[in-house]
Amino acid sequence: MEPDASNADLRLRWMPRPPDAFACARDWLREIAGGDAARALQRDARGRPRLPPGHGDIGWSHSGDALLLAWVPTGVVGVDIEPRARAVPALRIARRYFADDEVAALAALADVARDDAFLRLWCAKEAVLKAPGHRLSFGLHRLAFDATATAPRLLRCDPALGAAADWRLHARDGDGHVAVVARRDGILPA
């Protein structure tokens, strides 16, 4: 996944999952943001990676055999990655956790398209929630995406997440995985 022109400062690294994601993230930070940022990397009480003010923000996600790291110099970043091979009851999960319009859009799709759209939605929702430091318990139904779009497009979200238009989302499909990176400037992790 390459950053677009409006996100030239977003840095991404996709790799096979190392035994220690934290150590890998620290090494990568040293390369792109310097030794001070690498030494300052910690996890907060909820387990979210955290850098002190002035060092940017980092997020990562791993699933199966893949790791995706993301760093931005300002604002917050969240990442989620899921393997395509994971069989999930998409509609059953969506009915329980997603917004009603997302469920309706998924139900209208053929099975293969539905599974793909569901994974993209799940990754987008998790990435947005992870960016400011929220967890799934915040509520997946509190943000809604266009379930039929091939690129994630946030339609609305809880005011605690800011305005939907404030979020920049990037999807990557490949290597047997679906991934989404969510970014918002102007805020710090909670």
CATH architecture: Alpha-Beta Complex
- Number of separate helices: 5
* Alpha carbon gyration radius: 16 Å
Q: What is the number of strand segments?
A: 10
Top-tier CATH class: Alpha Beta
Q: Structurally, how many domains make up the residues?
A: 1
Regions with pLDDT < 50 over 5+ consecutive residues?
A: 1-5
What sort of overall outline do the alpha carbons produce when their principal axes are compared?
globular
Report the structural category: alpha+beta
Could you provide a short overview of the structure?
This protein is an alpha+beta fold and 190 residues long. The chain is 29% helix and 29% strand. The chain has one domain (7-184): Alpha-Beta Complex (Ribosomal Protein L22, Chain A), CATH 3.90.470.20.
Give a written overview of the molecule:
The protein is α+β, with helices and mostly antiparallel strands. Helices cover 29% and strands 29% of the residues. It has a single domain (7-184), classed as Ribosomal Protein L22, Chain A (Alpha-Beta Complex). Helix 3 (90-97) packs antiparallel against helix 4. The longest helix has 20 residues, at 111-130. The chain is globular. The chain starts with 10 loop residues before the first strand and ends in a 6-residue tail after the last strand. Mean pLDDT is 88; it is low at 1-5.
Keywords:
190 residues; alpha+beta; Ribosomal Protein L22, Chain A; three-stranded antiparallel beta sheet; 5 helices; 10 strands; 29% helix; globular; disordered N terminus
